[in-house]
Description:
Layout: E1 6-8, H1 10-13, H2 29-39, E2 43-47, H3 48-54, H4 60-69, E3 73-80, H5 87-106, E4 110-114, H6 123-139, E5 143-147, H7 157-167, E6 172-177, H8 178-184, H9 188-191, E7 199-204, H10 215-221, H11 233-243, E8 249-251, H12 256-259, H13 263-276
Amino acid sequence: MRNVDLIGSYWTLAGKAYPHDREESPFDFADRAQEAARAGFKGIGIWHSDLEKILTKYTHKDMKKILDDNGLFIELEFLTDFFYDDERRVWSDKMRKLLLDAAEALDAPHIKAGDFAGGEPPMSLVIDEFGKLCDQAKQRGTKILYEFIPFSVINTFDKAKQLVEGAAADNGGVIVDLWHVVSIGISYDQLATFPAKYVLGVELNDGPLKMPEDWRNETINHRRLLGEGEFDIPGFLNCLDKLGYDGPFGVEILSAKLRELPLRECCETVYSTTMAAFAD
């Protein structure tokens, strides 16, 4: 068994929370932390709108104590649209402050960023704004991890590489989600050539090798526990070994089935099935 730290990513342990709809978890933050730690996780994820809800009950100081009492660190997400200059940027700047303030107060190792809009803004603009965001994050003691996904501006291997090499930030890189590696069609051989110093995070899940026509629905509702799909998990882990990745692994499984489970059962199920993938 590898010595590995797992992050219970936000959507995995959030219960009946839905992307782009009811995004706030019905589970109390303290309960999530306690049950995640009890199952064996070393970190938990919090989505920006859920963070806003949590802060109506707990202060940053309260949250930090809960994390420390349970031996956990926190992953913050998701900052979008930080490279636009229209009304989207107004909202994005509000979320930027929310997430950066929390990262500093909670000693969060990183903030996830990206977008869901797609489109074709100039790469030079995206790179420049990503670099500025990384500079701000560095002042707060955290990193920025861009998640490349099929329905975003950075939706290919080459664009992801261009982004991080262009910004050249020592606290900026990508988070590699296996689901998106498969859905974009990036081979493990190609992935192994990504600049290793910019691979700052990894997310695990399982699913079909051939995405159905309604792949957005599949992405949001039907990701699978490790070992229940067709992904080559050992091959992916071997690829990361070649890159020299030694950081934590997030487990991001957006699943209608998981949403129905009680919190403890969800934590235990996700942790045990994920750790089984690391067995020698």
